[in-house]
Amino acid sequence: MAKPKTIFICNKCGAEFSQWFGKCANCDTYDSLVEENATPFGVDIPTKGGVGNWHVAPGGIKSSSKKPAKARASLTFDQISDRQIARWESGYGELDRVLGGGVVPGSMVLIGGDPGIGKSTLLLQVSNELSQRYRILYVTGEESGQQVKLRASRLGMSNPINVDSEADDTKKEAIKNTENNVENTEDDLAHHSIASDLYVLPETDLEEILREIDSLKPNLAVIDSIQTVFFPALTSAPGSVAQVRECTAALMKVAKHEDITMLIVGHVTKEGTIAGPRVLEHLVDTVLYFEGDRFASHRLLRTVKNRFGATHEIGIFEMVSNGLREVPNPSELFLGNRDDPAPGTAIVVACEGTRPIVVELQALVSPTSYTSPRRAGTGIDYNRLVQILAVLEKRVGIPMSKLDSYVASAGGLNVEEPAVDLGIAIAIVASFRDRIVDPGTVLIGEVGLGGQVRSVSQMELRLKEAAKLGFKRAIIPKGQKFPDLNIEILAVSKVIDAIIAAIPHQSLEDIDLETDEDEE
Ligand code: TYD
Ligand code: MG
């Protein structure tokens, strides 16, 4: 037998090389190549007794059936059934929103996020909800059955897990024993059916997982996490690029063939020793990121890729003592104490996908003790901050180059879109002057390099949200259309006009007009 060939795979992008390089030629990452055994593509490695009708092999999964495959006839749109369009409601509106209106049956969704952010919690809650109507298999490679059960009872799931109690083990055995007899499986399952249709499988071996999927025939399977799943025939360690890629590809094939919806957890690590879900993102239908400050309670579920809906949608949850709670009105989470406003704060309306969120921005400006001033932005784009500071120096005459400037969004929410520029500018000026911005005013607008206020997208959505939350006034770009709402509109064309309008008792004389620009 020929000596197994080794290849080098980039941990970051998954590119393959025949020799080791210090830098990946594909993605330019240093020291990211790892040595792995190359198994000839698509070899049909005999598996332990086979996985139902499937054989897993590196490079793909094959049907072991010797019968010739049925010809796949191409279809016209009329002939293709519309069934796919009927989405499932997950019981969590926030999740349905980021998925584009619910779970698409048969789709493969990857949920990425830092460890400890709440991925397992979210998926267990969703599994519990969906198990009222569908059969769910929750595969956990990170926790034991007892741990999952403990979490389930912490989440207040009334009739948690089926599989891990002793009695249920017997039932599962009974189900497993019928695995080769597909005809009877349904009957057996019905016979053994338990109130809730949620099954837990603590397992990391891909073959065992596929076997269980084949015998249980769930409507939906959760894999928590893909980094723990391994295929024994591949010599590389679980979590390596090759393992992650092959396991996902195998699961994908089964999912598409058997019409099983899959929710897959993927860890993201900063070190890059574990394959990040980047490699997976190409394979799956939908990629969601679960993010948030581990020290703050809110969590954002963000769409990065979606074959069945829009990207850049967000869903907002809050981690409380009994799990994740939906936040139906997120703006309240990101607004400071409006009864007692502090100098240097301004309210903006950011849009995440189609979702407007009213956020408080805080600025702190103070004389610098360094030769070059310190500038930092939390939750806002640093380059935009620097640009706005330059505009304020040149067009408004504030000596920003002699001042340290710090700007942060409340709750650390990322608001990196141009529409918050005006709010950043106003917050900085208010901090510089130690004034309070009228707390009933929201600021919407992009700041141009010439000090002009430019139009932004989705103005109607933003104004509606501000009006809904009781804001009295909005300062918006001149010339932009706005709907008739219960909110006073003040259209401005220059940053300086916005400053005068937003900061009470602020007159032009108060501002050091060092430039020869005549802003009036
Ligand atoms: P987990 O879902 O295990 O994170 P992940 O799967 O993304 O690694 O979430 C773990 C964190 O959530 C942990 O720090 C504790 C916290 N938590 C709560 O605050 N309340 C709860 O009800 C649960 C189940 C977890
Ligand atoms: Mg987890």
UniProtKB/TrEMBL annotation:
Segments carrying motif RadA KNRFG motif: 305-309
Binding site for ATP: G113, D114, P115, G116, I117, G118, K119, S120
Positions in coiled-coil regions: 168-195
Keyword Ligase appears in the UniProt entry: no
Region (Lon-protease-like): 404-520
CDD domains: RadA_SMS_N
All copies of domain RecA family profile, residue ranges: 84-268
UniProt keyword annotations, A-Z: ATP-binding, Coiled coil, DNA damage, DNA repair, DNA-binding, Hydrolase, Metal-binding, Nucleotide-binding, Stress response, Zinc, Zinc-finger
Swiss-Prot/TrEMBL domain comment: The middle region has homology to RecA with ATPase motifs including the RadA KNRFG motif, while the C-terminus is homologous to Lon protease.
Protein function: Plays a role in repairing double-strand DNA breaks, probably involving stabilizing or processing branched DNA or blocked replication forks. DNA-dependent ATPase involved in processing of recombination intermediates, plays a role in repairing DNA breaks. Stimulates the branch migration of RecA-mediated strand transfer reactions, allowing the 3' invading strand to extend heteroduplex DNA faster. Binds ssDNA in the presence of ADP but not other nucleotides, has ATPase activity that is stimulated by ssDNA and various branched DNA structures, but inhibited by SSB. Does not have RecA's homology-searching function.
Family: Belongs to the RecA family. RadA subfamily.
Protein name per the record: DNA repair protein RadA
Organism, as annotated: Okeanomitos corallinicola TIOX110
Originating gene: radA
